Amino acid sequence: MKTIKKLLTVKAMKAIGTAALFLGTLVIVPTSTLSGHQPKCPDELLK
């Protein structure tokens, strides 16, 4: 009985880890894409 519980726990942890990595990628990629496109600031405003 312990081995079945241990096996299920390991599989659940792997599934959670995979889902977390996938969701992290979905959040990071659009953010980095949007931050890469910044409007050019006029030189008068920088002085």
From TrEMBL:
| UniProt-listed InterPro entries | AgrD
User: Which NCBIfam families does this one have?
Assistant: quorum_AgrD
**Identification of the protein by name:** Cyclic lactone autoinducer peptide
Q: Please give the organism.
A: Clostridium pasteurianum BC1
